[in-house]
Amino acid sequence: MNTERCTQGGEPGKIKHRLRLAARYSLRIVLTSTLLAACALPGVPYRSVYEDPVNYIRLEQDQTVLPEWPPSAHAHPITMPVEDLTRLLGGISVRVHRIWLQTWLQGEAPLEPAFRPEELALLSRQLAAALVEVQVDERVIFYLSQPQTSVKRIITSGGFYRHGTELHFTLGNWQVQYGIPTYGMIYDRRYPLRAIAAKGFDVLFDPSDAVVAQHHSFLDIVLANATDELVIDLTKIVSSPVASRVER
C-alpha cells in the first residue's frame, strides 16, 4: 500500500521534471536559431537573366546607388555586341600575386586568361542580354562553377557596372575550390562578389592604356585587394558605333 502511494505520488514529479527539460531544450533551440539568423548576412535583391545547374547571370541591386543623389546612378542600360564583349572579356587576365621578395627571386608570375574558352563564349552571349536589361541602380553579376565532386567545385565569380564611359569590373573569386558545407549557408552562390578565400591574384587588362588608374590605401596594396578591380575606358576598346552609344 505504501509502495503504491509512493509510485502514484512520484508520477507528477517525473512529469514536471520532463516538462522542465523539454522547456530548456526548446529554449536552447530558439536561442541557437536566433544567433544563427543574426550571424547570417542578408540577401541582396536580384533579377535572374540566365541560369543553368552550375552557372548564372543576375542583375543585382547596388546599395551604393542613392536615389537622392543622381550622380551615383550607373549609365545603364547599354547595347554592346557580343563581339565587343568577347574582346573585352578576352582582354582580362589574372596573375598570381607575389610579394616583392618573391618577385625579386622568381620574377612575376605568368599571366593566365580570366575565363576559359567555354566560359568566355557563355558570358559574352548572356552578358549582352543582361546589359540591355540592367537598370541604373543595378550591376551585372556572374557566377561560373566547375563541379569536381558532389561536395567540391571550382568557382569564378564577380560583377561589373558602367559609370559614365568607364566599366568597373570586379573579380570576386578566380578558380577557387569551394567545399560545399553539409549544414549551413552556401555562401559562394549567395554572395558571388565576396571572396571565399584570400585574394592572391592581380587582375590586368590588355590593352593597358584603356585601364583607368585608381588610388588605393597601403593596406589594400599589402593585402592584394587593390588589383582585383579594373576600371576600363570603354571608348578605347569598343567599336565606333558602340562608342557613340556609350558616350550618350
Keywords for this entry:
248 residues, alpha+beta, 2 domains, 3-stranded antiparallel sheet, 27% strand, disordered C terminus
Summed up, what is this model?
The chain is α+β, with helices and mostly antiparallel strands and 248 residues long.
**Mean pLDDT, rounded to whole units?**
80
Main β-sheet: number of strands, strand sense, barrel status? 6 strands, antiparallel
User: Helix and strand string, N-terminal first?
Assistant: HEEHEHEHEEEHEHEH
Task: Estimate percent helicity.
Answer: 25-40%
Number of domains: 2
Task: Work out the radius of gyration.
Answer: 26 Å
Q: Report the total helices.
A: 7
Low-pLDDT runs of 5+ residues are: 1-9, 30-40, 240-248
Structural class: alpha+beta
Q: Categorize the overall geometry.
A: globular
Largest sheet, spatial ordering of strands? 1-2-5-6-7-9
Measure the end-to-end span: 99 Å
Content of β-strand: 25-35%
Number of strands: 9
Descriptive notes:
The chain is α+β, with helices and mostly antiparallel strands and 248 residues long. It has 2 domains: 1-39; 46-246, no CATH class. Helices cover 35% and strands 27% of the residues. It has helices spanning 2-39, 82-90, 100-106, 117-133, 187-190, 218-222, 240-246, and strands spanning 46-51, 56-61, 92-96, 111-113, 138-147, 152-163, 166-179, 201-205, 229-233. Strands 1-2-5-6-7-9 form a 6-stranded antiparallel beta sheet, with helices on one face. It has a 3-stranded antiparallel beta sheet with strand order 4-3-8. Helix 2 packs across helix 4. The N and C termini lie far apart (99 Å). 23% of the residues are buried.
